[in-house]
Protein backbone atom coordinates (compact mmCIF):
# COMPACT_ATOMS: atom_id res chain seq x y z
CA UNK A 1 0.00 0.00 0.00
CA UNK A 2 1.48 3.33 -1.01
CA UNK A 3 1.56 6.23 1.45
CA UNK A 4 -1.78 8.10 1.38
CA UNK A 5 -1.41 11.63 0.04
CA UNK A 6 -3.37 14.66 1.25
CA UNK A 7 -3.71 17.55 -1.21
CA UNK A 8 -5.04 20.93 -0.15
CA UNK A 9 -6.68 22.64 -3.13
CA UNK A 10 -8.63 21.32 -6.12
CA UNK A 11 -7.20 23.62 -8.76
CA UNK A 12 -5.61 22.35 -11.95
CA UNK A 13 -2.29 21.50 -10.29
CA UNK A 14 -3.77 19.65 -7.35
CA UNK A 15 -6.15 17.68 -9.56
CA UNK A 16 -3.36 16.77 -11.99
CA UNK A 17 -1.35 15.40 -9.07
CA UNK A 18 -4.38 13.49 -7.81
CA UNK A 19 -4.96 11.96 -11.25
CA UNK A 20 -1.33 10.85 -11.70
CA UNK A 21 -1.28 9.36 -8.20
CA UNK A 22 -4.54 7.54 -8.91
CA UNK A 23 -3.08 6.10 -12.11
CA UNK A 24 -0.14 4.76 -10.08
CA UNK A 25 -2.31 3.30 -7.33
CA UNK A 26 -1.70 5.85 -4.58
CA UNK A 27 -4.58 6.55 -2.22
CA UNK A 28 -5.20 10.30 -2.39
CA UNK A 29 -7.68 12.79 -0.98
CA UNK A 30 -8.11 16.39 -2.12
CA UNK A 31 -9.62 18.93 0.27
CA UNK A 32 -11.18 21.99 -1.36
CA UNK A 33 -12.66 25.10 0.28
CA UNK A 34 -15.29 25.61 -2.44
CA UNK A 35 -18.64 24.00 -1.69
CA UNK A 36 -18.93 22.22 -5.05
CA UNK A 37 -17.35 22.06 -8.52
CA UNK A 38 -19.83 24.72 -9.69
CA UNK A 39 -19.49 27.05 -6.71
CA UNK A 40 -17.87 29.76 -8.83
CA UNK A 41 -16.89 30.51 -12.41
CA UNK A 42 -13.50 29.06 -13.29
CA UNK A 43 -12.15 31.90 -15.43
CA UNK A 44 -11.68 32.20 -19.15
CA UNK A 45 -9.49 30.59 -21.79
CA UNK A 46 -6.18 28.87 -21.16
CA UNK A 47 -3.61 28.13 -23.84
CA UNK A 48 -2.17 24.74 -22.94
CA UNK A 49 1.40 24.52 -24.16
CA UNK A 50 3.02 21.52 -25.80
CA UNK A 51 6.16 21.92 -23.67
CA UNK A 52 4.53 21.82 -20.20
CA UNK A 53 0.75 21.68 -19.82
CA UNK A 54 0.26 19.08 -22.53
CA UNK A 55 3.11 17.01 -21.13
CA UNK A 56 1.25 16.94 -17.82
CA UNK A 57 -1.95 15.80 -19.51
CA UNK A 58 -0.05 13.04 -21.34
CA UNK A 59 1.35 11.84 -18.02
CA UNK A 60 -2.19 11.87 -16.65
CA UNK A 61 -3.46 9.86 -19.63
CA UNK A 62 -5.99 12.53 -20.61
CA UNK A 63 -4.93 13.70 -24.06
CA UNK A 64 -8.03 12.38 -25.80
CA UNK A 65 -10.25 14.20 -23.33
CA UNK A 66 -8.13 17.33 -23.77
CA UNK A 67 -8.42 17.30 -27.57
CA UNK A 68 -12.19 16.99 -27.23
CA UNK A 69 -12.44 20.35 -25.42
CA UNK A 70 -10.03 22.37 -27.60
CA UNK A 71 -11.74 25.40 -29.15
CA UNK A 72 -10.79 25.34 -32.79
CA UNK A 73 -9.51 28.55 -34.31
CA UNK A 74 -8.75 30.31 -31.02
CA UNK A 75 -4.99 30.45 -31.66
CA UNK A 76 -5.73 33.20 -34.19
CA UNK A 77 -4.22 36.52 -33.17
CA UNK A 78 -4.68 40.16 -34.06
CA UNK A 79 -2.34 42.94 -32.89
CA UNK A 80 -3.55 46.51 -33.31
CA UNK A 81 -2.15 49.94 -32.66
CA UNK A 82 -4.27 52.01 -30.26
CA UNK A 83 -5.53 53.97 -33.27
CA UNK A 84 -6.91 50.74 -34.76
CA UNK A 85 -4.17 50.17 -37.32
CA UNK A 86 -3.76 46.42 -37.88
CA UNK A 87 -0.17 45.36 -37.19
CA UNK A 88 -0.80 41.62 -37.33
CA UNK A 89 -3.76 39.49 -38.39
CA UNK A 90 -2.78 35.84 -38.15
CA UNK A 91 -5.22 32.99 -38.66
CA UNK A 92 -5.15 29.73 -36.72
CA UNK A 93 -3.93 27.15 -39.23
CA UNK A 94 -4.05 24.31 -36.72
CA UNK A 95 -0.28 23.87 -36.47
CA UNK A 96 0.29 25.84 -33.26
CA UNK A 97 1.40 24.30 -30.00
CA UNK A 98 -0.81 26.35 -27.67
CA UNK A 99 -4.46 25.31 -28.22
CA UNK A 100 -7.10 27.13 -26.19
CA UNK A 101 -9.59 25.53 -23.81
CA UNK A 102 -12.03 26.85 -21.24
CA UNK A 103 -10.51 26.56 -17.77
CA UNK A 104 -13.75 25.15 -16.39
CA UNK A 105 -13.82 22.40 -19.00
CA UNK A 106 -10.22 21.45 -18.27
CA UNK A 107 -11.00 21.22 -14.57
CA UNK A 108 -14.04 19.09 -15.39
CA UNK A 109 -12.09 16.44 -17.29
CA UNK A 110 -9.62 16.23 -14.41
CA UNK A 111 -12.44 15.83 -11.89
CA UNK A 112 -14.18 13.24 -14.05
CA UNK A 113 -10.97 11.19 -14.17
CA UNK A 114 -10.94 10.68 -10.39
CA UNK A 115 -12.94 8.16 -8.35
CA UNK A 116 -16.03 9.54 -6.63
CA UNK A 117 -15.19 10.97 -3.23
CA UNK A 118 -11.57 11.82 -4.04
CA UNK A 119 -12.35 15.55 -3.63
CA UNK A 120 -13.87 16.59 -0.31
CA UNK A 121 -15.73 19.81 -1.05
CA UNK A 122 -16.43 22.49 1.56
CA UNK A 123 -13.22 21.82 3.50
CA UNK A 124 -11.31 25.05 4.02
CA UNK A 125 -8.02 24.59 5.85
CA UNK A 126 -8.01 26.73 8.99
CA UNK A 127 -4.72 25.67 10.57
CA UNK A 128 -1.97 23.13 10.06
CA UNK A 129 0.54 21.88 12.62
CA UNK A 130 3.52 19.60 12.41
CA UNK A 131 3.37 16.45 14.54
CA UNK A 132 6.92 15.29 13.90
CA UNK A 133 8.41 12.53 11.74
CA UNK A 134 6.87 14.04 8.60
CA UNK A 135 3.28 13.91 9.87
CA UNK A 136 0.93 16.91 9.88
CA UNK A 137 -2.53 17.63 11.19
CA UNK A 138 -4.87 19.82 9.15
CA UNK A 139 -7.85 21.39 10.89
CA UNK A 140 -10.72 22.66 8.75
CA UNK A 141 -13.18 25.48 9.33
CA UNK A 142 -15.90 23.04 10.37
CA UNK A 143 -13.70 21.66 13.17
CA UNK A 144 -12.88 18.39 11.43
CA UNK A 145 -9.27 17.22 11.27
CA UNK A 146 -7.08 14.94 9.21
CA UNK A 147 -3.59 13.62 9.99
CA UNK A 148 -1.36 12.82 7.04
CA UNK A 149 2.11 11.53 6.33
CA UNK A 150 2.36 13.42 3.05
CA UNK A 151 0.84 16.88 2.67
CA UNK A 152 0.83 18.87 -0.59
CA UNK A 153 -0.12 22.53 -0.69
CA UNK A 154 -1.88 23.19 -3.98
CA UNK A 155 -3.91 25.98 -2.40
CA UNK A 156 -2.84 28.98 -4.43
CA UNK A 157 -1.51 32.44 -3.72
CA UNK A 158 -2.57 32.63 -0.08
CA UNK A 159 -1.60 29.06 0.77
CA UNK A 160 -2.19 27.80 4.31
CA UNK A 161 0.45 25.13 3.73
CA UNK A 162 3.27 27.47 2.63
CA UNK A 163 4.13 28.73 6.17
CA UNK A 164 5.27 25.21 7.08
CA UNK A 165 8.09 25.70 4.58
CA UNK A 166 8.63 29.39 3.97
CA UNK A 167 8.05 32.84 5.48
CA UNK A 168 7.57 34.36 2.01
CA UNK A 169 4.27 36.13 1.33
CA UNK A 170 2.93 37.47 -1.98
CA UNK A 171 3.44 41.15 -2.75
CA UNK A 172 1.63 43.35 -5.23
CA UNK A 173 3.32 43.02 -8.62
CA UNK A 174 2.50 46.55 -9.80
CA UNK A 175 -0.20 45.70 -12.32
CA UNK A 176 -3.85 44.70 -12.23
CA UNK A 177 -6.43 43.38 -14.63
CA UNK A 178 -9.92 44.81 -14.93
CA UNK A 179 -12.14 42.20 -16.58
CA UNK A 180 -15.31 42.65 -18.61
CA UNK A 181 -17.45 40.44 -20.87
CA UNK A 182 -19.39 41.16 -24.05
CA UNK A 183 -22.04 38.56 -24.88
CA UNK A 184 -23.54 37.80 -28.31
CA UNK A 185 -20.80 40.03 -29.64
CA UNK A 186 -21.23 39.29 -33.34
CA UNK A 187 -24.77 40.66 -33.29
CA UNK A 188 -24.76 43.07 -30.33
CA UNK A 189 -21.17 44.39 -30.50
CA UNK A 190 -20.09 43.88 -34.12
CA UNK A 191 -17.29 46.47 -34.20
CA UNK A 192 -15.61 45.04 -31.11
CA UNK A 193 -16.13 41.50 -32.41
CA UNK A 194 -14.45 42.39 -35.70
CA UNK A 195 -11.53 43.98 -33.86
CA UNK A 196 -10.97 40.84 -31.79
CA UNK A 197 -11.39 38.43 -34.68
CA UNK A 198 -11.54 34.69 -34.13
CA UNK A 199 -9.01 34.34 -31.32
CA UNK A 200 -7.00 36.85 -29.32
CA UNK A 201 -6.57 40.63 -29.62
CA UNK A 202 -3.60 42.54 -28.23
CA UNK A 203 -3.41 46.34 -28.09
CA UNK A 204 -0.65 47.84 -25.98
CA UNK A 205 0.99 51.06 -24.90
CA UNK A 206 3.41 51.66 -22.02
CA UNK A 207 1.68 50.95 -18.73
CA UNK A 208 -1.67 49.98 -20.26
CA UNK A 209 -2.84 47.17 -22.48
CA UNK A 210 -6.08 45.60 -23.64
CA UNK A 211 -6.21 41.88 -24.25
CA UNK A 212 -9.37 40.14 -25.41
CA UNK A 213 -10.28 36.52 -26.13
CA UNK A 214 -13.13 35.09 -28.13
CA UNK A 215 -14.43 32.38 -25.84
CA UNK A 216 -17.14 29.78 -26.49
CA UNK A 217 -19.59 31.03 -29.10
CA UNK A 218 -19.33 34.78 -29.59
CA UNK A 219 -18.49 35.80 -26.02
CA UNK A 220 -15.62 38.29 -25.76
CA UNK A 221 -13.62 38.30 -22.52
CA UNK A 222 -11.58 41.48 -22.02
CA UNK A 223 -8.56 41.92 -19.74
CA UNK A 224 -7.63 45.57 -19.27
CA UNK A 225 -4.11 45.70 -17.82
CA UNK A 226 -2.97 48.81 -15.98
CA UNK A 227 0.32 49.48 -14.21
CA UNK A 228 -1.06 51.47 -11.27
CA UNK A 229 -0.56 51.26 -7.49
CA UNK A 230 -3.21 49.58 -5.36
CA UNK A 231 -4.34 52.86 -3.85
CA UNK A 232 -5.17 54.13 -7.36
CA UNK A 233 -7.61 51.27 -7.78
CA UNK A 234 -8.86 51.66 -4.20
CA UNK A 235 -10.12 55.13 -5.13
CA UNK A 236 -12.50 53.56 -7.68
CA UNK A 237 -15.87 52.31 -6.46
CA UNK A 238 -16.24 49.07 -8.39
CA UNK A 239 -19.73 48.60 -6.96
CA UNK A 240 -20.78 51.56 -9.13
CA UNK A 241 -20.55 49.94 -12.55
CA UNK A 242 -21.05 53.09 -14.60
CA UNK A 243 -18.56 55.19 -12.65
CA UNK A 244 -15.92 52.44 -12.53
CA UNK A 245 -16.28 51.75 -16.25
CA UNK A 246 -15.93 55.43 -17.08
CA UNK A 247 -12.85 55.79 -14.88
CA UNK A 248 -11.08 52.82 -16.44
CA UNK A 249 -12.05 53.88 -19.97
CA UNK A 250 -10.56 57.34 -19.33
CA UNK A 251 -7.11 55.74 -19.24
CA UNK A 252 -7.63 54.86 -22.91
CA UNK A 253 -8.81 58.24 -24.21
CA UNK A 254 -7.91 58.62 -27.86
CA UNK A 255 -7.87 54.88 -28.60
CA UNK A 256 -10.03 53.63 -31.45
CA UNK A 257 -13.71 53.26 -30.43
CA UNK A 258 -13.92 49.62 -31.55
CA UNK A 259 -11.16 48.90 -29.02
CA UNK A 260 -12.46 50.96 -26.11
CA UNK A 261 -15.90 49.41 -26.67
CA UNK A 262 -14.43 46.30 -25.04
CA UNK A 263 -14.52 48.36 -21.83
CA UNK A 264 -17.43 50.75 -22.28
CA UNK A 265 -19.91 48.27 -23.78
CA UNK A 266 -19.33 45.51 -21.24
CA UNK A 267 -22.35 43.38 -20.38
CA UNK A 268 -20.92 42.75 -16.92
CA UNK A 269 -19.58 45.18 -14.37
CA UNK A 270 -15.78 45.64 -14.37
CA UNK A 271 -14.03 43.25 -11.97
CA UNK A 272 -10.67 44.15 -10.45
CA UNK A 273 -7.98 41.43 -10.38
CA UNK A 274 -4.76 42.69 -8.71
CA UNK A 275 -1.61 40.73 -9.51
CA UNK A 276 0.57 39.39 -6.71
CA UNK A 277 3.85 37.52 -6.85
CA UNK A 278 6.26 35.61 -4.65
CA UNK A 279 10.00 36.34 -4.93
CA UNK A 280 11.31 35.02 -8.25
CA UNK A 281 13.89 32.84 -6.49
CA UNK A 282 11.46 31.47 -3.89
CA UNK A 283 13.04 28.41 -2.24
CA UNK A 284 12.73 26.46 0.98
CA UNK A 285 14.75 23.85 2.81
CA UNK A 286 13.43 20.30 2.70
CA UNK A 287 10.86 19.74 5.44
CA UNK A 288 9.79 16.12 5.91
CA UNK A 289 6.35 15.15 4.66
CA UNK A 290 5.27 18.38 2.96
CA UNK A 291 5.73 20.29 -0.31
CA UNK A 292 4.02 22.86 -2.55
CA UNK A 293 3.03 23.17 -6.18
CA UNK A 294 1.64 25.81 -8.52
CA UNK A 295 0.94 29.30 -7.19
CA UNK A 296 1.53 28.14 -3.62
CA UNK A 297 5.14 27.53 -4.65
CA UNK A 298 5.87 30.11 -7.36
CA UNK A 299 3.12 32.70 -7.73
CA UNK A 300 3.93 35.19 -10.50
CA UNK A 301 2.15 37.99 -12.31
CA UNK A 302 0.25 36.65 -15.34
CA UNK A 303 2.70 35.49 -17.99
CA UNK A 304 0.79 32.73 -19.76
CA UNK A 305 2.56 29.98 -17.82
CA UNK A 306 0.86 29.75 -14.41
CA UNK A 307 -1.72 27.02 -15.07
CA UNK A 308 0.67 25.10 -17.32
CA UNK A 309 3.41 25.11 -14.68
CA UNK A 310 0.98 24.06 -11.93
CA UNK A 311 -0.14 21.07 -13.99
CA UNK A 312 3.45 20.11 -14.80
CA UNK A 313 4.31 20.41 -11.09
CA UNK A 314 1.48 18.02 -10.27
CA UNK A 315 2.47 15.53 -12.96
CA UNK A 316 6.16 15.53 -12.04
CA UNK A 317 5.46 15.24 -8.31
CA UNK A 318 3.19 12.29 -9.03
CA UNK A 319 5.86 10.64 -11.17
CA UNK A 320 8.53 11.20 -8.52
CA UNK A 321 6.35 9.55 -5.87
CA UNK A 322 5.63 6.64 -8.20
CA UNK A 323 9.38 6.24 -8.81
CA UNK A 324 10.15 6.24 -5.07
CA UNK A 325 7.09 4.68 -3.41
CA UNK A 326 9.08 3.62 -0.34
CA UNK A 327 11.07 6.84 0.08
CA UNK A 328 8.89 9.95 0.27
CA UNK A 329 11.80 12.25 1.03
CA UNK A 330 13.73 11.09 -2.03
CA UNK A 331 10.64 11.76 -4.15
CA UNK A 332 10.07 15.22 -2.72
CA UNK A 333 13.73 16.14 -3.08
CA UNK A 334 13.77 15.01 -6.71
CA UNK A 335 10.60 16.99 -7.44
CA UNK A 336 11.74 20.20 -5.75
CA UNK A 337 15.20 20.14 -7.35
CA UNK A 338 13.55 20.15 -10.77
CA UNK A 339 10.70 22.52 -9.88
CA UNK A 340 12.76 25.32 -8.30
CA UNK A 341 14.85 26.30 -11.34
CA UNK A 342 11.98 25.72 -13.75
CA UNK A 343 9.61 28.01 -11.87
CA UNK A 344 12.15 30.83 -11.51
CA UNK A 345 13.09 30.96 -15.17
CA UNK A 346 11.91 34.15 -16.80
CA UNK A 347 9.40 33.47 -19.54
CA UNK A 348 10.74 35.56 -22.41
CA UNK A 349 9.44 35.01 -25.91
CA UNK A 350 11.94 35.93 -28.58
CA UNK A 351 10.27 39.01 -29.99
CA UNK A 352 7.80 38.44 -32.79
CA UNK A 353 9.12 34.94 -33.53
CA UNK A 354 6.83 33.49 -30.83
CA UNK A 355 3.94 34.14 -33.22
CA UNK A 356 5.75 33.06 -36.36
CA UNK A 357 5.84 36.63 -37.65
CA UNK A 358 8.00 37.39 -40.64
CA UNK A 359 8.05 41.16 -40.99
CA UNK A 360 10.39 44.10 -40.97
CA UNK A 361 7.89 46.38 -39.22
CA UNK A 362 9.91 47.77 -36.31
CA UNK A 363 6.74 48.96 -34.56
CA UNK A 364 5.40 45.44 -34.52
CA UNK A 365 8.58 43.94 -33.13
CA UNK A 366 8.76 46.60 -30.43
CA UNK A 367 5.13 46.02 -29.50
CA UNK A 368 5.49 42.24 -29.26
CA UNK A 369 8.65 42.66 -27.19
CA UNK A 370 6.83 44.99 -24.80
CA UNK A 371 3.84 42.67 -24.48
CA UNK A 372 5.74 39.47 -23.90
CA UNK A 373 8.62 40.55 -21.70
CA UNK A 374 8.45 39.59 -18.03
CA UNK A 375 10.49 41.47 -15.44
CA UNK A 376 12.55 39.54 -12.97
UniProtKB/TrEMBL annotation:
Required co-factors: FAD
Pfam families: FAD_binding_3 (PF01494)
Gene3D superfamilies: FAD/NAD(P)-binding domain
GO molecular function, one term: monooxygenase activity
Entry binding sites for FAD: 47, 103, 295
Predominant location category: cytoplasm
Residue positions binding NADPH: 40
Record-annotated FAD-binding domain positions: 3-347
Location(s) in or outside the cell: Cytoplasm
The keyword Oxidoreductase appears for this protein: yes
Keywords carried by this UniProt record: Cytoplasm, FAD, Flavoprotein, Monooxygenase, NADP, Nucleotide-binding, Oxidoreductase
EC numbers for this chain: 1.14.13.-
Family in the record: Belongs to the aromatic-ring hydroxylase family. TetX subfamily.
Protein's job: An FAD-requiring monooxygenase active on some tetracycline antibiotic derivatives, which leads to their inactivation. Hydroxylates carbon 11a of tetracycline and some analogs.
Assembly description: Monomer.
Protein name: Flavin-dependent monooxygenase
Organism: Streptomyces virginiae
Lineage of the organism: Bacteria, Bacillati, Actinomycetota, Actinomycetes, Kitasatosporales
Amino acid sequence: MHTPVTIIGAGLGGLTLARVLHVHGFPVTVYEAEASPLARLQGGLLDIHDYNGQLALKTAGLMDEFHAIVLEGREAMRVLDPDGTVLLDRADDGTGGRPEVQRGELRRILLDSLPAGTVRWGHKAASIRALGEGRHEVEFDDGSRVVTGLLVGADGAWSRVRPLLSTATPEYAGTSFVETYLFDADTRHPAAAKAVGGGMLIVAAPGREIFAHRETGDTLHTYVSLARPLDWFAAIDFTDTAAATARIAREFDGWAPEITALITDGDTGPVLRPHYALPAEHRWDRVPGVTLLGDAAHLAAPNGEGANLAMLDGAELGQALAAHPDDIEAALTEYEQAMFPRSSEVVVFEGAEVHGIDTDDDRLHALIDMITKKDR
